[in-house]
Amino acid sequence: MFQMYSNLFYCALGIAVKMDAFNSSICRTFEDICNRVSELPEKTAELVELTNFMIESRDVTVYNLNQEILGVAEKILFLFDHAILPSK
């Protein structure tokens, strides 16, 4: 019986570590976008490049990140549904 709970614990711990790394990568991507759009362009070409980056971020990157966040939320809800929590 102890072995079964031990295996479940290590499995859950492994999932938690992977989810933490995945969540951190999502946060880093948002931080990278924030840092990039905070730059002040000095030339017209840089302004055009920044504008294109902002459009790409809005239309593609942030959309994909939102989908990843929804996936993480589903995994967390699954873990909560199947977790064995202490009664106290």
Verbal overview:
- With 88 residues, the protein is mostly helical.
- The chain has one domain.
- 85% of the residues lie in helices and 0% in strands.
- Helix 1 packs antiparallel against helix 2.
- The protein is elongated.
Largest sheet: none
The poorly predicted ranges are none
Shape category: elongated
Q: Please report which band the strand proportion falls in: under 5%, 5-15%, 15-25%, 25-35%, 35-45% or over 45%.
A: under 5%
Number of strands: 0
- Give the class from helix and strand content and strand pairing: mainly alpha
Present the secondary structure layout.
Blueprint: H1 2-37, H2 44-82
Helix pairs in contact: 1-2
Key terms:
single chain; 88 residues; mainly alpha; 85% helix
Question: How would you sum up this structure in a few lines?
Answer:
With 88 residues, this protein is an all-alpha fold. The protein has helices at 2-37, 44-82. The longest helix has 39 residues, at 44-82.
